[in-house]
Write a structure and sequence with these properties.
By secondary structure, the chain is an alpha/beta fold. Helices cover about 30% and strands about 25% of the residues. It is built from 14 helices and 18 strands. The protein has helices at about 15-25, 40-45, 85-90, 180-190, 200-215, 225-240, 260-270, 280-285, 295-315, 325-330, 370-375, 380-385, 405-425, 475-490; strands at about 5-10, 30-35, 50, 80, 95-110, 125-140, 145-150, 155-160, 165, 220, 245-250, 275-280, 320, 360, 435-445, 450-465, 470, 495-500. The longest helix is centred in the middle third of the chain and has 23 residues, at about 295-315. About 40% of the residues are buried. The structure holds xanthosine-5'-monophosphate.
Length: about 500
């Protein structure tokens, strides 16, 4: 089945992917395309609607990113957001001016056209999030002003006959509480979308597609137990069963019990063809004496590829190599200087010495939250699908200084206690990532009558949505106290606990 499509035209704003995710949350499939995609190409895709994103440029300047005016004559409904609204206003003959000062923050939006399709079911005064310096000061001919704020004469505008809509604010962010309603109004009422993008359907379709593509051939997947490779693995397994071989390289740098848990889910629950390679000695052998963080990462990346290749060689030629690439890795950026959002410093890359003919990437169209939902649909346990990011080099970047089995074991025990206590609390649904770090520092303590000289353990917990910036979580002191007590009592060789209170930037989330 072909899904209805909405196109998000990217003008380089910071919320571009968020807009696309909101559309998907409304169960409508959408693609993000660069703003200069030719009109013919857009029309050929037969979209039900188009959304122009915001962007950092000034529309009245000559080299500002624009669309051809004929796009407005195609009859395809368009919603312009912020810069996208100014662009629509400007090209169609309205006026765009500079505000006296940059407007950033919440503004009360007064709906002036009660029967606007865009605002159906929305309160007549509602909160909206503004972030702009320029605005449409006078709407083009044929347009009505449908909402205003104290500072914005054209908070929203529309030419309902032509299905053209513009909003100066950002409906996609949570600070516009009725924004999702407005986006859904655009999708369902204006574009006539039917909400045909659901996880159940995606799962069924993907499995069918993979069956067709792979036929009776062989597929190989490096399975780490992270969200993406786990979901890709189960999807492939449901499509081609034992024709799929998963190689799980256990580098000995996982958290407590993690290797066994991963093995158990995929072997016992799903009966998958999984090869677990216990390569702890190899990795620790190569890491012996190494203290420089970049060198550690490099060694682990290289060794990972080597182990994977050796195992793959035993299997012989395969037809397909599967990868858990997801949509944010493949979106072309809209403007050359737009922030390129890439999956963060991943180790490895493609192995050079594995014989395969083609790559399969079953998650290529999906955002991370969709991958998680797909995983739930496929019956993967919650602890795997809701998993936090875990660095490829594992605990090696959380043991400062030389990595040894002894230090890893101390860290694993302490980290488990920290995670257990946070997972019991309500915080666990709101924080982005939490873990313990074994510093290389030892200090004096006292235990009973004896003096000790043991490790200092750091706790790190951050609130973040994109992992590019983060703030340290204000964990209630009684939780910190419980964690601290338990760790110093239960984990030998830790006698001091500190809590990391730096945001990113200037610090990073991981310590190495
Ligand atoms: P930093 O420490 O740079 O980390 O603030 C940002 C996010 O990326 C994760 N991270 C990694 N993820 N391979 C990964 O797949 C890696 O080598 C790696 N290093 C850091 C980190 O846990 C955080 O979520």
């Amino acid at each position: 089945m072909k899904h209805e499509l909405v196109i998000v035209l990217d003008f380089g704003g910071q919320y571009n992917q968020l807009i696309a995710r909101r559309v998907r949350e409304a169960n409508v499939f959408c693609e993000v395309l660069p703003y200069d995609t030719p009109v013919e190409k857009i029309v050929n895709k037969n979209p039900k609607g188009i959304i122009f994103t915001g962007g950092p440029n000034v529309v009245t300047e000559e080299d500002a990113p624009k669309v051809e005016a004929k796009l407005f004559e195609t009859g395809i409904p368009i919603l312009g957001i912020c810069y996208g609204c100014q662009l629509m206003g400007y090209i169609l003959g309205g006026k765009v001016d500079k505000a006296e000062q940059r407007e950033y923050g919440k503004a009360d939006l007064k709906i002036t056209k009660a029967d606007s399709k865009l605002f159906a079911g929305v309160n007549s005064t509602t909160s909206s999030w503004m972030s702009h310096t320029y605005f449409v000061s006078s709407a083009p001919k044929g347009f009505e002003v449908t909402a205003t704020t104290d500072t914005c004469p054209v908070g929203a505008m529309e030419n309902a006959e032509k299905n053209l809509y513009g909003v100066q604010f950002h409906p996609e962010v949570v600070h516009t509480p009725e924004g999702q309603k407005m986006l859904e109004n655009f999708l369902y009422q204006v574009c006539g979308c039917k909400a045909d993008w659901t996880m159940k359907q995606i799962a069924e379709e993907q499995i069918e597609k993979l069956k067709e593509k792979i036929g009776d051939k062989k597929v190989l997947l490096a399975l780490s137990g992270g969200v993406d490779s786990s979901v890709a693995g189960v999807l492939l397994h449901k499509a081609v069963g034992k024709q799929l071989t998963c190689i799980f390289v256990d580098h000995g740098l996982m958290r407590k019990n993690e290797g066994d848990e991963v093995e158990s889910v995929f072997k016992k629950q799903f009966d998958m063809n999984l090869i677990r390679v216990n390569a702890e000695d190899r990795f620790l052998g190569r890491l012996a004496g190494v203290t420089d963080p970049e060198t550690k990462r490099k060694i682990i990346g290289e060794e990972f590829i080597r182990v994977f290749e050796e195992e793959a060689k035993k299997i012989g030629t395969v037809d397909f190599l599967a990868q858990g690439t997801i949509y944010p890795d493949v979106i072309e950026s809209g403007t050359k200087d737009a922030a390129v959002i890439k999956s963060h410093h991943n180790v490895g890359g493609l192995p050079d010495h594995v014989d395969f003919k083609e790559i399969v990437e079953p998650l290529r169209d999906l955002f991370k939250d969709e991958v998680r939902n797909l995983g739930r649909e496929l019956g993967i346990p919650e602890f795997l699908v809701s998993r936090q990011p875990f660095p490829g080099p594992g605990l090696a970047v959380r043991v400062i200084g030389e990595v040894t089995k002894h230090k890893l074991d101390i860290l694993r025990d302490a980290d488990l206690i920290f995670r257990e206590e946070l997972e019991k609390s309500e915080l666990k649904n709101t924080i982005g990532q939490y873990f313990a770090v074994l510093t290389n520092l030892r200090s004096v303590g006292v235990m009973g009558d004896e003096r000790t000289y043991n490790y200092t353990l750091a706790l790190r917990c951050v609130d973040t949505s994109d992992f590019m910036t983060a703030d340290w979580t204000r964990i209630p002191h009684d939780i910190l106290a419980r964690v601290s007590n338990r760790i110093v009592n239960e984990v030998k060789e830790v006698n001091r606990i500190v809590y990391d209170i730096t945001s990113k930037p200037p610090a990073t989330i991981e310590w190495e």
